[in-house]
User: What shape does this take?
Amino acid sequence: MIIGLSLVAISGLVLVAADHIDAPSVTGNAADITDVYAFQGQDTNNMVFAVNTQGLLSPGGTAAAEFSENMLIEVNIDNTGDNVEDLVIQAIRKGDKMYFFGPYAPAAKGLSSTIDVSKASGSVAISKYGAAANVSTENGMKFFAGPRDDPFFFDLGQFQKILGGTATGFNNPGTDTFAGTNVLAVVVEVPKSSLGNAATINVWSETKKKQ
Assistant: This one.
C-alpha cells in the first residue's frame, strides 16, 4: 500500500557540495540540508548514507532543534547512470522515533514522492543532545537519527580572501569555520546487495514537505 502523502521538494544537495547557508525560507530549519555523505561501511559489504540538516546549530540551540513530522528526508540512488532515482531510502519522524523505508524503487520520481509503508525497513529512537547515541539494527540495516558535531571542514574566511583576490590558496592547516556547531543527522547503513549490481552509483538527497 502507498499512503496518501504528497510531498514537494524544497531543498536538495548533490554529494559533491556543501550548503550551510541556504535561502532564507529554509536556512536552519528542518528542510535545510547541509551535507550528504555516502561511503563504504566498516563491514565492506555495506554502504552508509548520511544526511545532515539544520546546520550552524550552537551548543545552546542544539537541544531545542528537532526533526519535523511534516518533512521527509529522502536519499535518491541512481544505479543506471541516467541521473534519475532508481531507488530511494526515506526517513520521517513520528513522535520520538525516526521511521525508515527502503531502499526500494519509488512509484513517483522527481519533485514529488510517496511513501510505500509496505517497504518499512526499521526505526530508531531519536537521540537527545548530550546523551548516548541510539542505534538500532533491523532487517540487516542500522539506523541513527539525532544531533552530531558538524563533520564538514571549511575555512570560509580564507575562501572569501581567495575570492577577493587577497589570497591565492588555502592555509595548511586552515581554520574550521564550523567548529563548535552541530547538525541533526540521519544515518542508515544498508547491504550493498540491496542497491543493485552497478559498480558505480549516483547519490543525492532531498527534503520534501507534506502537502
